[in-house]
Amino acid sequence: MITVNHLTKMYGNRCAISDLSFEVDKGEILGFLGPNGAGKSTTMRILTGYIAPTSGTAEIAGYDILDEPYEARRRIGYLPETPPLYNDMTVKAYLEFVGDLKGLAPSSMRAHIDAVVEKTGLEDVYHRLIGNISKGYKQRVGLAQALLGDPPVLILDEPTVGLDPNQIVEIRELIKGLAGDHTIILSSHILPEVSMVCSRVAIINRGRLIAVGTPSSLSHRMKGGSSLELRIRGPQNEVAQILRQVDGVMHVEARESDETSTLLAVKTSSGNDCRERIFFAMADAGYPILEMRPVDVTLEEVFMQLTTSETEMADALEVTASA
């Protein structure tokens, strides 16, 4: 549904994005991640036709954004980080205004707006001024205008920014419910949210694509081994020392300890399942294992490792070049 082909955007001598290529399948939610200034918003603005790339192109539902810009834009619903709202208009008047801009037929506009209002939960504020409704409802209005015209592609830039936890959950569930009927690119700094909502993620740094995959595949890629979390009834120092002697255990870190048990994080070598050996080592020492569970690398840890290593490498190259 979305195909990005070697997109590059220059602002004078500064490269905002460089040779970006990726695809988003029909009905998929792709999380688009990167540090501030990485090029996320630039990419989204190019996809929506707001700015032109320096080179490369993209297709939306089969339409090239440069050769067939009008047809490509007709198939996109866009929610920028700051929703394009008019505070002196009611929600009803604003959605009718956007419907006119999108060329909705007058005969079907009322039914279409009613459907979008119901989907986004705007019934209670439908006749109120936008300037008098909460931030959460304003985000819902912004999402509603993106949905008008039933575009197959939605591009959402930080849709939950500035919301309280309850509002974040509401918008998150709303976006999840749109998957299947819509193909979605979602930019967010709330990485647990991305893990819960998105089927795949694309991470960019300094304008370059550095990783694409499911959260679990990226987690597996970064681990380089397995991690376990254990709670063992026994003294911290003795338990940790026994674990370090188990074949395949690479690192042991005590997380917390109380009068009855110790919580430890254990890193094992790749492809080495140490759980049975750990069980017998603790049993032989007389220290019961109260809990043992595998621990995945979180998306936050993947993001930090990838972007930090890429930034350090780029800085080193810049220093070498200047020398």
Keywords:
single chain; Rossmann fold; alpha/beta; disordered C terminus; 11 helices; Alpha-Beta Plaits; 323 residues; four-stranded antiparallel sheet; six-stranded mixed sheet; 28% strand
Outline the structure in words.
- The strands form three sheets. The chain has a six-stranded mixed beta sheet with strand order 6-7-8-3-9-10, sandwiched between helices. A four-stranded antiparallel beta sheet has the order 2-1-4-5.
- The protein is built from eleven helices and 14 strands.
- The protein is of the alpha/beta class.
- It has two domains: 2-220, Rossmann fold (3-Layer(aba) Sandwich); 221-294, Alpha-Beta Plaits, CATH 3.30.70.3100.
- 39% of the residues lie in helices and 28% in strands.
- A hairpin with a 2-residue loop joins strand 4 (55-60) and strand 5.
Task: Write the topology of this structure.
Blueprint: E1 2-11, E2 14-24, E3 29-33, H1 40-47, E4 55-60, E5 63-64, H2 69-74, E6 76-79, H3 91-101, H4 106-120, H5 135-147, E7 153-157, H6 165-178, E8 183-187, H7 191-197, E9 200-205, E10 208-213, H8 215-223, E11 225-232, H9 236-244, E12 249-257, E13 262-269, H10 275-285, E14 289-294, H11 299-322
Parallel strand pairs: 3-8, 3-9, 6-7, 7-8
Antiparallel strand pairs: 1-2, 1-4, 4-5, 9-10, 11-13, 11-14, 12-13
Helix pairs in contact: 3-4, 4-5, 8-11
**pLDDT under 50 segments (min length 5)?**
316-323
- Physical arrangement of strands within the biggest beta sheet: 6-7-8-3-9-10
- Portion in beta strands: 25-35%
Distance between the termini: 45 Å
CATH top-level class of the largest domain? Alpha Beta
In quaternary terms, these chains amount to single chain
